[in-house]
Amino acid sequence: MLKNILHTAWRSIANQKGYSILNIAGLAAGLASFIFIALWVQDEMSFDKFNKRYDRIFRLVSADKEGNAYAMSGAPMAAALIHDYPEVENAVRLRQREEIVTYEHRQILQSGILITDPSFFQVFSYLLMRWRKGLRRLASEKCWELPSEI
Question: How far is residue 58's CA from residue 85's CA, in Å, rounded to a whole number?
Fold first, then answer.
């Protein structure tokens, strides 16, 4: 029976070449689109899942009058969210800046420096590494008190 179905399908493809090419091209484009969309959704759903409590981390997004969304808010927003909403357990503010850094008696303009609240390590599961005299150690959350040793 399968042999008859394949024989009939091959005969139909041979008799109607233009229509068959159009159908096969449409099927290939549809499958390729599905695969790309599925890969994109999988990537978006797995984003930042290395954090221990990834299901409890949210991002605050503000929108302007035109409907453009930005991941920016005023500095007092974190304290206001914690105070006004009991569901909010903790809040972290991040700011990327360009600063002058002194390293081995040289000053370097370093871009991409993140400035954050000390609660960053209570929300996210990143490990802060400290290098001193060739040894690598985990830095404690008290590192904010000792900025010269980081």
Answer: 14
C-alpha–C-alpha distance, residues 118 and 141, integer Å: 7
Residue (of 91, 71, 94, 73) closest to 82 by Cα position:
91
- Tokens standing for residue 136: 């690598």
Beta strands in 68-134 (DSSP E): 69-70, 94-103, 106-116, 129-132
Q: Which helix (H) or strand (E) holds 62?
A: strand 62-63
Both tokens assigned to 99: 């600063």
pTM metric for this prediction: 0.56
Mean pLDDT by 10 residues, the chain (150 residues): 90 89 96 98 85 86 86 86 92 87 84 84 76 48 44
